[in-house]
Specification:
By secondary structure, the chain is of the alpha+beta class. Strand 22 and strand 23 form a beta hairpin.
Length: 346
């Protein structure tokens, strides 16, 4: 018997090892059964996936879509059109994210001179190009596939205007900064399309703007820990993408159709993801393009008004006063006028 074998030191080592393995497997099965019966209903655990991952001692907990919001086109800036994802009545913010716009701009519309304080703007072009200029004298051109990660910090005034005669399209994400980082000096991280890492696996192409996918990492430094990945999936393909369990995460769909975390969606939808550590996406007869964005929540109070985002109302009032009087980071604001965009009197 098993008891006799444990009691006796005369049992062979082979028998002991075999019994130990059987006991270990039995314990694992018991814990899996308990875990499945007690799991959070917002987390989808697929039994055959667990069986596959047991061989490598890994279990995936799949995120499900908990909110689906269609982004409606609206006016913004000076004659520009945007589809706002985060930053609407349905989804005012999603810590640490403050706003996501899918923009489409034709000359002479654009985003003329305007300030920022307390967060970062992430501009990613998908078509056409945008000119950029700020009150430090910095100028640049963001072309298709290029990235500009701008830390506004204590204050920046800049202009963003279309550079081509056709449609100029892209995404702009606003990422909040922790209170300790809100007054850092402004700065830029800029990557050309060719310098953003990407790879293709089983019909899925991942372009890693921030974070990691398929074993490749972005060189972008994120003060607020963030992942931002542009995926293109061919028809009849599948993606299982790791998302850190502590992150708030969402999908914004750009084109095509797919099933995201069990929910079907076409273009221009924001899909807020529930708890878990993996997003499953599958395509059918159509391809799909989308961005997966996630970040570590700051869990700090937010006081915001237009382009100023602080922690308290008094800090917010101070930010507006600093801009109006040209102090504490806005010293150049009152005398500066861009050469490409003019003054935003709004």
């Amino acid at each position: 018997s098993i008891f006799a074998c444990f009691k006796s030191f005369h049992c062979s080592s082979g028998v002991f090892i075999k019994i130990s393995i059987h006991l270990t497997v039995a314990v694992i099965i018991v814990f899996l059964v308990i875990g499945i019966s007690c799991r959070d209903p917002a987390v989808d655990i697929v039994s055959d996936t667990l069986e596959i991952e047991m061989t490598s001692n890994v279990a995936k907990f799949f995120r499900k879509v908990v909110q689906k919001v269609l982004s409606i086109e609206q006016a913004e800036g000076a004659g520009a059109r945007v589809r706002r994802s985060i930053g609407t009545r349905q989804l005012p913010d999603f810590d640490p994210f403050l706003m996501l716009d899918e923009f489409s701009v034709r000359k002479p519309a654009g985003f003329p001179d305007h300030p920022h304080r307390g967060f970062e703007t992430v501009t990613y072009m998908t078509e056409g190009a945008f000119m950029h200029e700020d009150f430090t004298g910095r100028k640049g051109l963001i072309q298709p596939g290029d990235l500009q990660w701008m830390t506004a910090g204590r204050g920046i005034v800049h202009t963003e205007m279309p550079a081509t005669d056709g449609d100029n399209r892209g995404l702009q994400l606003w990422v909040n900064l922790a209170s300790k980082d809100k007054m850092v000096e402004p700065g830029y991280q800029e990557l050309l399309d060719k310098d953003i890492p990407r790879t293709t696996v089983d019909g899925v192409t991942a372009k890693v703007i921030a974070g990691e996918a398929f074993g490749i990492k972005s060189p972008v430094y994120t003060r607020t820990p963030t992942m931002y990945i542009d995926f293109i999936m061919q028809p009849n393909s599948r993606l299982d993408q790791h998302v850190p369990a502590g992150y708030n995460a969402f999908v914004y769909t750009l084109s095509g159709a797919a099933k995201y975390g069990g929910t079907d969606a076409e273009a221009h939808y924001t899909l807020v993801l529930g708890p878990g550590d993996t997003l499953e996406v599958t395509t059918g007869d159509l391809p799909a393009r989308f961005v997966l964005i996630g970040g570590q929540p700051l869990n700090e109070p937010v006081a915001k008004y237009g382009p100023f985002v602080m922690n308290t109302q008094s800090e917010l009032m101070q930010a507006m006063q600093d801009y109006q009087t040209g102090r504490n980071g806005f010293e150049n604001a009152r005398k500066w006028k861009s050469t490409i965009g003019g003054i935003d009197d709004d």
